[in-house]
Amino acid sequence: MWNQYYRINLTDQEIQRGSHRNQIGGKWNEIGELQFRFMKEQGLQPDHELLDIGCGSLRGGIFFIEYLNEGKYSGLDLNSSLIKAGQSEIKKAGLMSKKPTLLVNDSFHFNLFKKKFDYAIAQSVFTHLPVNVIQRCLIHLEQVLNPGGKFYATFFETESKFHVDPVNQPNSGGVVTKIDSDPYHYHISLFEYLIEGSSLQMEYIGDWGHPRNQKMISFSKI
Ligand SMILES: C[S@@+](CC[C@H](N)C(=O)[O-])C[C@H]1O[C@@H](n2cnc3c(N)ncnc32)[C@H](O)[C@@H]1O
After folding, report:
1. Were both Cys, which of 34, 63, 124, 133 would link to 129 (CB 3.0–4.6 Å)?
2. 144 located within any domain
3. Is 213 a domain residue?
4. Are 66 and 98 in contact (CB under 8 A)?
5. Is 182 touching ligand 1 by the criterion CB < 6 Å?
6. 143 vs 119: CA distance, rounded Å
7. What average pLDDT is seen over the chain?
8. Are strands 167-168 and 176-177 parallel, antiparallel or unpaired?
9. Does the Cβ of 184 fall within 6 Å of ligand 1?
10. What does the pLDDT look like over 139-150, one tens digit per residue?
């Protein structure tokens, strides 16, 4: 399998102890709040439909669910034990009444939610994915984004298209990214290529204050 998240299988006891908070990368509050603040700055309102792609155990999700109106949060992840941990976070935060929808799926089958979305986010997800899997994500996302809808994704950047050696990501606390294994880095032109001929338009946002130097890119549906 092409990323480490297939292997995580948390027991109920581990979930009770909160082990999932480290399994999805740590910095639980900092990165949770960072993505929430960012999406609000981009215009996310309580009545918008939000799709959280690779939502994990809801590091950002808990903030989004609290803010959004009932039924407006949809999260998808390939790992069922991380989703289970997310459900326990929802209970712990007293947010059951917000009725979020969580799905386990590893092929980005967003149509299973049976709705269209105004906003989507994939925080620290493309950083773990090979390009053909990112392509699958973008193709499925195009089908479920409302016209004018926006998708924000983080990635590790490399400055040259032709760079094959590992990259020590600056200001990342020691993250080393690679061209062909997790964590992956990409040149921005790759995303332009992936959406060519689609109804998506891309904007490079770059630095958005991520503590491991993940950059932000946005895709808007025309
Ligand atoms: C570093 S975690 C980030 C989780 C969450 N976005 C957050 O900020 O806490 C990466 C997540 O992406 C999920 N993931 C990786 N590949 C995926 C795929 N093909 N489909 C759905 N989820 C995926 C992993 O299971 C994991 O939960």
Report:
1. 133
2. yes
3. yes
4. yes
5. no
6. 13
7. 96
8. antiparallel
9. no
10. 999 999 999 999
Is position 69 within any domain?
yes
CA-wise closest residue to 73 among 63, 82, 88, 83? 63
Measured at the alpha carbon of residue 38, what is the angle toward residues 3 and 106, in degrees to the nearest 5?
25
Tokens (6 digits) for 20: 């999932």
For residue 166, the domain's CATH number is 3.40.50.150
Could you tell me which residues come within 8 angstroms of residue 63 by beta carbon, excluding any fewer than 6 positions away?
Answer: 32, 33, 35, 36
**Is residue 74 classed exposed, middle or buried when 0-12, 13-18 and 19+ CB atoms within 10 A define those classes?**
buried
| Residue whose CB lies within 8 A of the most ligand 1 atoms, among 1, 2, 4, 5, for a mutation test | 5
If you measure from the C-alpha of residue 106 to the centroid of ligand 1, how many angstroms do you get, rounded to a whole number?
Answer: 10
| Residue indicated by tokens 């006891």 | 13
Kindly compute the dihedral angle of the four CA atoms of residues 19, 38, 196, 162, in this order, to the nearest 10 degrees: -70
User: For residue 102, what are the domain limits?
Assistant: 29-41+49-221
Q: Which of 20-24, 37-41, 64-68, 87-91 has the lowest mean pLDDT?
A: 20-24
The reply to whether 200 falls in a domain is yes
42 Cα to the center of ligand 1, angstroms: 22
pLDDT band at 2 (very low <50, low <70, confident <90, very high): low
Any atom of ligand 1 within 6 Å of the Cβ of 89? no
Q: How many distinct structural domains can be found in the chain?
A: 1
* For residue 46, cis peptide bond before it (omega within 30 degrees of 0): no
Higher pLDDT, 101 or 2: 101
